[in-house]
């Protein structure tokens, strides 16, 4: 029985790992990959050194755009304007501008993002630590906002975009194995995206300074849950196979 439990736990963790690996292997047309390629192109073209890091971050939210300003350790500045669009996944494109230490424009380009049109509305929500953009169908989502969390429920949510307003990380949980795609600039997360194949009724996003530990905990818990489910199925099969008392 001990070997069976151990095998179930290992299988559960393997299931979670394989699901995450498959989900993160995004195709070339995905929003997250397009955003990452656009940002990396700007950094490469301006010859930003590899050891440069983000030292400051300010974020401004408007009804149809979100502006992210990043100050770098080499005194460069990166401005990312996230262009939102109604009636589809809410990112239509991003405009990236890189300013050198003396204020000259080193790079400025608008990158349109390909998306699948749909009849989705979106709403921009703010908390103390991050901004969230929900694409949804039906009625406007019911939301509960705390200093470090934002919960939306009661509607059909198609995608979530969470953007930190201060240095830190965000964890979003839809209650399923839906992954969170992380967009980074010089190893600093600036955007978190959940794209769902089918709308969900509930989503919870939380801000954290130590999200790496939280992500690991989530993976372990999902692995244990998968293992317990596997054990339950085995037990049901074993019980059904027991000989019927005469």
Q: Overview of this structure, please?
A:
This protein is of the alpha+beta class and 246 residues long. Strands 6, 7, 8, 9, 10, 11 and 12 form a 7-stranded antiparallel beta sheet that branches. A 5-stranded antiparallel beta sheet has the order 1-2-3-4-5, with helices on one face. Strand 1 and strand 2 form a beta hairpin. The protein is globular.
Set down the secondary structure blueprint:
Blueprint: H1 2-24, H2 31-45, E1 54-61, E2 65-72, E3 77-84, E4 91-99, E5 105-112, E6 121-126, E7 130-137, E8 142-145, E9 149-164, E10 169-173, E11 181-185, E12 188-208, H3 211-241
Antiparallel strand pairs: 1-2, 2-3, 3-4, 4-5, 6-7, 7-9, 8-9, 9-12, 10-12, 11-12
Helix pairs in contact: 1-3
Number of H/I helices:
3
Give the CA-based shape.
globular
The proportion of residues in beta strands is 35-45%
- How would you state the average pLDDT, rounded? 77
Structural class: alpha+beta
Helix content: 25-40%
Q: Helix and strand succession?
A: HHEEEEEEEEEEEEH
- Low-pLDDT stretches are 6-29, 211-217
Radius of gyration: 21 Å
């Amino acid at each position: 029985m001990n070997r069976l439990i151990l095998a179930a736990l290992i299988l559960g963790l393997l299931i979670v790992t394989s699901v995450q690996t498959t989900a993160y292997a995004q195709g070339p047309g995905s929003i997250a990959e397009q955003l990452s390629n656009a940002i990396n192109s700007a950094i490469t073209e301006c010859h930003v050194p590899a050891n440069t890091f983000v030292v400051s971050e300010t974020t401004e939210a408007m009804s149809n755009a979100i502006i992210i300003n990043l100050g770098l350790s080499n005194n460069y500045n990166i401005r990312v304007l996230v262009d939102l669009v109604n009636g589809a996944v809410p990112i239509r494109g991003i405009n990236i501008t890189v300013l050198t230490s003396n204020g000259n424009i080193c790079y400025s380009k608008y990158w349109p993002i390909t998306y699948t049109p749909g009849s989705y509305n979106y709403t921009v929500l703010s908390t103390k630590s991050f901004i969230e953009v929900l694409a949804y169908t039906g009625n406007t989502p019911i939301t509960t906002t705390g200093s470090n969390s934002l919960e939306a429920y009661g509607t059909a949510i198609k995608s979530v975009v969470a953007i930190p307003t201060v240095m830190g990380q965000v964890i979003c949980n839809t209650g399923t194995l839906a992954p969170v795609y992380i967009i980074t600039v010089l190893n600093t997360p600036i955007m978190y995206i959940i794209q769902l194949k089918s709308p969900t009724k509930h989503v919870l996003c939380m801000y954290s300074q130590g999200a790496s530990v939280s992500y690991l905990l989530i993976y372990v818990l999902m692995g244990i849950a998968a293992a317990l489910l596997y054990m339950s199925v085995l037990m049901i099969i074993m019980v059904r196979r027991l000989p019927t008392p005469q």
